[in-house]
Design brief:
244 residues, six-stranded parallel beta sheet, 7 helices, 9 strands, 18% strand, alpha/beta
Length: 244
């Protein structure tokens, strides 16, 4: 499954590279279609990317009034909860850039899981109905040590979902409910950018990129845009087990 792969020497270099890619994708989309639709990722790896995007050097390069912000997944918690993906992006990026509040489309994690999923799918379908927004321009994703991405977990039927765009999901019966985009909408994106950092991800990164295709076991392998591209930006520690 090895796609477009960039190995950066450090986590800091990874943040710089992914922030630069975000800016370039935004510039291209706004120049060609008048808006940029991005789905943000949660987790620890994108945090430094968001902080980099909020620096003076990069803020001025993005026409934030033309940016529509989505999320790839969210925990079923209120927006101010410490584990909220929305809160992390708000604190590190959104409160530091001039993006209009009406352009920020958060998942209502405080609502009942099924209701929140249905409401977010309606939001996406309304946003992507127009010619200027027929698909998401950039989806940022991470990679879990078990091979999950967004909240698409090993063994979940959501990995093969081709009709619904948003589902409620959880890793196990005892774990927290989450809301996730499905491959049906992620694979329609113009670009998917995986951010992977740290030695703890080295073994799973090799399985995903170099092992047999088993998306039910390794949901990240289900991400293969039909008319777009996948980029992997990883640091040297995460890439340590890859074949040279």
């Amino acid at each position: 499954m090895r796609a477009d792969l960039a190995v950066l020497p450090s986590a800091a270099a990874l943040a710089d590279a992914t922030a630069a890619r975000f800016v370039a994708a935004a510039e291209d989309a706004i120049a060609s279609r008048g808006q940029f639709i991005v789905a943000l990722s949660g987790g620890s790896t994108p945090r430094d990317t968001y902080r980099q995007l909020a620096t003076e050097a990069l803020v001025s390069r993005v026409m934030w009034s033309r940016v529509q912000v989505l999320w790839g997944d969210e925990r079923c918690v209120p927006p101010d909860h410490m584990e909220s993906n929305y809160r992390m992006a708000r604190d590190t990026l959104l409160d530091r850039v001039p993006v209009p509040a009406g352009n920020v489309h958060r998942i209502l994690g405080e609502d009942a899981p099924t209701s929140a999923a249905e409401a977010y799918e309606a939001t996406l379908r309304a946003l992507l109905r127009t010619p200027a927004g027929a698909r998401i321009d950039l989806v940022l994703l991470g990679l879990g040590e078990d091979g999950h991405t967004a909240s698409l977990f090993p063994g979940s039927a959501a990995v093969h979902e081709q009709t619904r765009w948003v589902l409620a999901a959880r890793a196990s019966a005892a774990s927290m409910w989450r809301i996730t985009l499905t491959p049906a909408v992620i694979n329609a994106a113009a670009e998917v950018l995986f951010l992977v950092s740290g030695g703890a991800k080295a073994a799973i990164l090799r399985r995903v990129l170099e092992g047999p295709r088993r998306p039910q076991e390794l949901p990240a392998q289900a991400i293969a845009p039909s008319n777009g591209r996948v980029r992997w930006c990883v640091d040297a520690a995460a890439a340590a087990d890859l074949t040279p």
